[in-house]
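LOG
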Amino acid sequence: MYPPAPPAPHRDFISVTLSLGQGDDGSKAQRRRSCWRKWKQLSRLQRNVILFILAFLMLCGLLSYISVADQWKAPGGRSAREQRARPANPPILPAPQKAAADPGDGPVRPPQRPQRHARRGPPNLQIRAPDRDAQGRRQDGSRRREGAVDEAHQQQNPPRTVVSWRGAVIEPEQGTELPSRRAEAPSRPSSWGPRILKHVAAPNERQKAVIDAFRHAWAGYRKFAWGHDELKPVSRSFSEWFGLGLTLIDSLDTLWILGLKKEFGEARRWVSRRLQFQKDVDVNLFESTIRILGGLLSAYHLSGDPLFLQRAEDFGNRLMPAFQTPSKIPYSDVNIGTGVAHPPWWTSDSTVAEVTSIQLEFRELSRLTGVRKFQEAAEEVTRRVHALSGKKDGLVPMFINTHSGLFTHMGVFTLGARADSYYEYLLKQWIQGGKRDAWLLEDYLEAVAGIQRHLLRRSEPSKLAFVGELAHGRFSAKMDHLVCFLPGTLALGAHHGLPAAHMDLARELMDTCYQMNRQMETGLSPEIVHFNLHAQEGQKDVQVKPADRHNLLRPETVESLFYLHRLTGERKYQDWGWEILQSFNTYTRVSCAALPPGVPPPAQSRGASPLGRVPAVHTRTDQVPPGPSARPGQLCAPWGGHGAPAPQDAARPRCPPHRRSLGPGPAAWCVRQWVPGSSGDRHRLWRPRSPLVTRGNHK
């Protein structure tokens, strides 16, 4: 036998086998198999949810890229800073400045002239040193001249970014930009001076008539109601609404535009010395914004006087408590002395037109002062209305609750009172903001489409286009004079790149608004008209109810005529405005009338606050007080006895025994017997039923 083999020696180590390359590939494959195995282990619902989320994220990213690229990518691939289009009209107004002291009535310093270059030619030719070689100088000079011509052409015709929006060609512009800090506001001039062009063409006969009419109305206000809200022309007194000189402030821009420097200086001194906002009085947010705040801002832009901007900022601060509501929808009234805001005593609602028609003024106040709160508060209102339900194809109801922030009185849609200027301010905010707020444009275009779909009809027999009302699904052929803002708004939108069909509709509606004046005996539109939808023999397109046969000297028609005349260049719109001015002069202007005992005033003793909003289109004049030189029992014809003569064959209308007639000819009014002191300056007018001569027969 052999002896057993000796045991193997003990080795104190381990063996490790390394695989180069194969192990990594195997682990990757294993991980792929592991992920796939985990995916297969998920339920079908889980897999579908994950796939849906991924697809949704990809779609959102794609849409965001397309939207950004479509709006801001310039044709030449320039940077975002260079892609901004230049403003259509470069800013030439003075930068806002807060003066430490009131400029007073000291001497006015003429505006400084811009520095002129010592050498002629574009500036880029003046800073280049001459070349050594004459031939090189000629070649470089030729190239520089070509470059200068190209540069000048680009400056005159800057490239504009074109955005497509529902078939409309829209060109973003440099608009109102809110400063990030008050310190960034531009420096303000230390003095102000007249900025009327030196070489102004002499006014023609029509322009002289406009200026004379305004002077006549202003003289009555200055003599009998200076510094008060409104003139009562018949009683030669005044009435107060807020006690803030509404007529004076609202007429500052008109005084400047008409070149009435003396009258403007007197009004400015009143604003500087007498206007006080620290008083315990409730003001309507909407009315005070468009008249006082808007009037002060307009006066500042035209004159450059920092006094108006100071007063505008002070007044804007006093209006801010109205925005402190649970819904951010402002109250209708605010006390500018105590800072307490509240809704009307009869309801907690505000009208949609009032809360959405203050944005232009507050946004501009923020731009000029650098204070963000004005624009932020006003824009928040528009954004909340934008997000509300209850609209009908862009049309909004008339009321909104300040506590809940929701529409009330649903189902009634109109472009008349309580809703009209909402649509106007949508477009103008979009333009004011440089056409960058697409949601404003979307709301405006949707509203115009809704108007065409639900409210636009044609009358019989003349097929006049008009905008009616919709109440709980039933159409009413009722159109307020307020709706005549729409032709001008549509024309303004078409001018800024919206569809040309808007201009076509503007022309049709403008003709309708003109006919609302022309078909009346006085040539003045009533407050409300009703159109005939069914052809009937002997009937006109327009009918007026007795309660609506009054004219409040509203500016909507002449404002739209101004837009149409400026944007189309057609003289007929100016001629129509001239006819309306003549009618106002004939039937509302009283130059010298002393009312005898027992005879009532011939017209409402109330003058409209804005004495002339659109003087360039021969706008209206206000009623003026009777002069003191008339004898008792004498009644003077309009324009001091130069009224329109009545036809010889027109019989004088006869009034009932208990009423008296005022004025000669067929335009006479029959009035009730008037007891002095019983009704103040209020009265009731009665139209005689005898045959009347239409306006077209006795121009």
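LOG (cont.) second protein
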Amino acid sequence: MVRFQDSSQVHLQCEVALCRNPCPA
């Protein structure tokens, strides 16, 4: 799991989804 300082909410959603989908950088 990678942290996106530019997108906190996006990272949070990805984490909840177990990073199943590629998170938009």
